[in-house]
Amino acid sequence: MAALPPGSLFLGFDSSTQSLKATVLDCNLNVIQLDQIHFDSDLPHYKTKDGVYRDPSDSGRIVSPTLMWIEALDLVLQRLSKSGLDFGKVAALSGSGQQHGSVYWKNGSSSLLSSLDSNKPLLDQFRNAFSISESPIWMDSSTTAQCREIEQAVGGAIELARITGSRGYERFTGPQIKKIFQKQPDVYNSTERISLVSSFMASIFAGKYASIDHADGAGMNLMDIEKKTWSKVALEATAPGLEEKLGALAPAYAVVGPIASYFVERYKFSKDCLVVHWSGDNPNSLAGLTLSVPGDLGISLGTSDTVIGISSDPKPGLEGHVFPNPVDTKGYMVMLCYKNGSLTREGMH
């Protein structure tokens, strides 16, 4: 890799449940700039509560409007620009996304991604890009039937855990895809690509579909965690023709490609700025905490509460999750996650 130009900056995002955060670092990892879009307060016209919609007609169904995430990206880039950030110095950008959430790109959206008009905001150009306007997210618990069906099809819950790192979990992407295929087959059939929140955001910056990465991809009940490829048996248990809609997998640290010309023209990014694959918030927490010794644990108290650690010899069971380590290609990360985190604590005050 060529030496970085003097004064290079690095731009990181966190696309979480309730907000989109942007952090700018210099070469010495000093924080140069921060900004944050709170969905409820900064984008009130979506009428979300805690960044989500709770569906009163479908018990446990919790989704977020996909376009809200795009408008938040427009807004945070505008704010960074107004505050004087020189985007031309940004050598690379990446980010983390809330895990498990999924975005459904409509047939033909790949050509839209590659031909964005730099005179228009992103929001105006993506209004018709999705086959479903609301993204199921990790808080959703409406897919119990689909979880049991997938487990049964692969040979039981423990077999699904052995292959994919987790038994069937309602919030995981595979059961969510199966529910859409069963209940809205027209939506499924008109979908060209299914992204996770992380690969969705990376796709916008790259101007092409970014791969789902190995670490975030393990939160779907679809990937063979040992081979780091899509599991044929899990795919077949979920929906027909699914592998084509998911695309290839990639390491979390791999480069998607140079930034799309839209951002070069509109915000004056360098055409050499690299878009690195985004990953899930929990794998990125493990990387950011530099956990590298088995026995070390990280605890995250957020909208959900999680405990993460690392292992070289994972034994997936009926509780918790095993993902590939996003930094160490031979290792794994283990995680326990509980949904009733900060919102429960806030409700007790």
TrEMBL record:
Residues 137-286 form the Carbohydrate kinase FGGY N-terminal domain. It catalyses: D-xylulose + ATP = D-xylulose 5-phosphate + ADP + H(+). Keywords: ATP-binding, Carbohydrate metabolism, Kinase, Nucleotide-binding, Transferase, Xylose metabolism. The keyword Transmembrane does not apply. One of its GO terms (cellular component) is cytosol. Coiled coil: none annotated. InterPro entries: ATPase_NBD (IPR043129), D-XK_euk (IPR042024), FGGY_N (IPR018484). The keyword ATP-binding applies. Its EC number is 2.7.1.17. One of its GO terms (molecular function) is ATP binding. GO terms for biological process: D-xylose metabolic process; xylulose metabolic process. SUPFAM superfamilies: Actin-like ATPase domain. It is an enzyme of class 2 (transferase). Belongs to the FGGY kinase family. Mediates 1-deoxy-D-xylulose (DX) phosphorylation in the cytoplasm prior to the translocation of 1-deoxy-D-xylulose 5-phosphate into plastids. Can also phosphorylate D-xylulose (Xyl). Uses preferentially ATP as cosubstrate. This is Xylulose kinase.
